[in-house]
Amino acid sequence: MLKAVIFDLDGVITDSAAYHYAAWKVLADRMNIPFDKSYNEKLKGVSRMESLNLILDNAKGRDAYPESMKEELATEKNEIYKEMIKAITKKDLLPGIEELLKDCKKRNIKVALASASKNAPEIIKRLEIGHYFDYMADASSIKRSKPYPDIFLNCAENLNEDPAECCGIEDSEAGIDAINAAGMVSIGVGSTEKMKKADLILKGTEELSLDPIIKMLTA
Fold first, then answer.
1. What is the DSSP string of 13-35?
2. Which end of the chain has fewer beta carbons closer than 10 Å to its terminal beta carbon, N or C?
3. CA 199, CA 201: separation in Å to the nearest integer?
4. In the chain, what are the domains?
5. Residues 10, 150, 177, 199: which is the catalytic one?
6. Is 138 a catalytic residue?
7. Consecutive 10-residue runs of the chain (219 residues): their mean pLDDT?
8. Among this protein's residues, is 8 annotated catalytic?
């Protein structure tokens, strides 16, 4: 049986990834580091510090910068990002998401958030959907980021559910790897090429519904 649905945030619930890219772009441009939307694909699903390291690898390399400086840079990016996300409203929910959340509640299926973003609770608040969630993982307490399964296992544990009776929804390759490693059903939103390891691939969030997921678990 399906007992819980665990959502990623960026690219699944809302497109806050665009704000992340814009904030990193401001920082990279200031440091004269090459950074564009193509390179930004490497940052999807990973933590803030690992994202910074990947950007620094495109310059002198992450080891060329002291940890104290990297902490300052990560903080600077986050402050830029926090200003940008003040523009987020309920209108920024991706198609089909609130309908899916409502259906989960109707069927007594638990809902959790597995986002690497430490700003996820603030974004959920601005989207006005916090009441749907039974649990939101604290990204700062998760030791290993995606593609490791830690954040999804953390959600299952706090929901008191068996990972085998949970599904995760992601739009990044690292996220799908994390869901699969957690022993959950993986739902990939995006191109077949990028989501090829997912158990179920959907082109967009408007295609999300519980029945195909339940069918997969009971087959």
1. TB-THHHHHHHHHHHHHHTT---
2. C
3. 7
4. 4-15+89-218 (3.40.50.1000), 17-87 (1.10.150.240)
5. 10
6. no
7. 95 89 96 95 85 94 94 96 93 96 97 92 96 96 92 98 97 95 97 94 95 84
8. yes
